Records
---
Amino acid sequence: MTFNTDAIVLKIVKTGESDRLITFLTRDRGVIKAFAGAAERPKNKLHMSTNLFCYGNFTFYENAKTVKTEECDLTETFFGLQKDIETLSLAQYFNELIIETAPRETQANEYMRLLLNSLYFLAEGKKNPRLLKAVFELRLSSIIGYMPSLVACKSCGAFETEPMYFNIETGELFCRDCIQKDAVCCPLEVIAAMRHIVFSELNKLFALQINVGKIPLLTQICEKYLIMSVGKNFKTLDFYKAIAN
Ligand SMILES: [Zn+2]
């Protein structure tokens, strides 16, 4: 059976003499693995279109045993992601998160849109990469079913106080009068940023503005919350942090 879908290359493993086993995120069928025969050869038609982060409309052939990719109408290569090791390693972390969390055998449009937008802004290089990382992590936590309860204080319903307190373990918010001992003290601006990441429409998600001095706390919270949501650590994250620090 042959099928077409928009797809992006998340991971490549060289196999055999010159084949690639590629992990894709596809719009229609989530994460799939497919072989690209002879794609390691420079003259092969899939050589350029099956590099890391390549995005386009791919044609796949599937039989009982394997899936193969046969053609690609390439839309975007995200070449800007290769500009330095820090950018590249953050993009690889995004890919690893998608491989870990996106569904199999079902549509993954929301994951696809989040990833494409994040890679676009990362490649463009105009937005703070740490902010992009925080946005990706917290939005992804929400998509996979761990949306934090950020509407109001869990105890009294207060909408905003300066500061507020966020419990990373439970995803619950508390006001300054209902402080909970395990919660992290957050300036209201950080809570407002988290609300934006969780509640905004995707087309407004990356318009997020925050004082640069508040980014480290936002980054720290979003990372911890994501790790808690997914329940594991990521090698690509350790690598990115080693580079970025
Ligand atoms: Zn309260």
Note: The mean pLDDT is 97.
---
Amino acid sequence: MKKTSAILWQDAQHQVLFEILDMIAEPNAGKDVLRHLHDYSEQHFALEERYMIALDYPMTASHIKAHDRFRQEISSLLELGEADPAFRAAVSTFLTEWLKRHVLGIDKDLEAFILAADLK
Ligand SMILES: [Fe+2]
Ligand SMILES: [Fe+2]
């Protein structure tokens, strides 16, 4: 079987997450965008976590902890209600930076592990 250098679902989902984070910074973005971020990130994290557990990935606990921090950020945002545009822009920047570090850091390690296991 031909090996690829990336996992397509993971790359595609990260791309969508960055797009949703951009939408949060838009002036007329409402709570529905935050809810969309909540639902989509949960779906993405859950899929990564299913792979980790299925493959007995050694870094599972710390990776789930990192996901949980992001989950907490989104939950507290949802509890806040309507936020003004400047605050949403700041949140968008903060979460985008977090996600970039995550995607280029421990998600890359997970990707390499899944590819080596040939289970994508
Ligand atoms: Fe990810
Ligand atoms: Fe992750």
Note: The mean pLDDT is 92.
---
Amino acid sequence: MILAVLSGKGGAGKTFVSVNLAVTAGRATYIDCDVEEPNGRLFLKPKDIKEKPVSSRIPEFDPEKCSECRKCVDFCQFNALVYVGDRPVVFPEVCHSCGGCAIVCPSGAVKETERQVGTVETGWRGDVRVVTGILNPGEASAVPVIKSALKTGCAAEELTVLDCPPGSGCSVLESVSSADYCILVVEPTAFGLHNFQMVAELVWLMKKPWGVVINREDGAYPPLEEFCTQNAIPILGRIPYSKKLAGLCAAGQIACTSDEETGHLFARLLYAVREEAET
Ligand code: SF4
Ligand code: SF4
């Protein structure tokens, strides 16, 4: 089963939930798809790491063949091409590797070359396989690294936990596309609810089954409870606001193994997720 853990904004507790679910499961794969800020490895501290480069294809222009028609520049929807002097020039960090400029070129002047945009690391923490996508700084598109991390880590026969990027952009879509079930992590605040509703729209659009984990709960927040009730959204678990948990996270500790009460909480959460996902 592939579980995608999402949140509307960074810092809601998505990595905390993902890491602790994977460790609670025992034998599992954790994939960090939040490739711009992959923090899961700070908690899991994987060993025996192997690295794999991730590349994208970018255009290269042959001045001998170029007829200076500018069709490639006009075609590029990502503004990755400009015409300088008598030839097109590409901004590699902005290119989305769509291949369109090579297709529209009437002179065969465009060929594609490989360029490294990131890395996928694979290591182990006990029986948990830890796959981490890492996007090179300054790159515009996280999608190639996410695709490579998913291809490396997703295995149907075991529990796979995807720690998705925050928000509801195309990198989140890519991460969630292969998931069997989604967990939305939300803080019980007005800001948290607003961002949570945007991600809820996304999982509804993608027709994925899903439920909610309320993080840092310090008393009920009625608007969130009402939203879940009105839309028949299951609340899978509630993680209390706790200085002890905050301290464990700040120290890079895995809470479910460091604190017995939290260990029970995540065991119940994993059970609830499996029950919901299998019905
Ligand atoms: S491959 Fe696509 S995004 Fe990149 S420069 Fe060509 S048209 Fe633009
Ligand atoms: S489309 Fe081809 S021929 Fe036209 S400017 Fe671009 S590279 Fe040159």
Note: The domain at 56-116 is CATH 3.30.70.20 (Alpha-Beta Plaits).
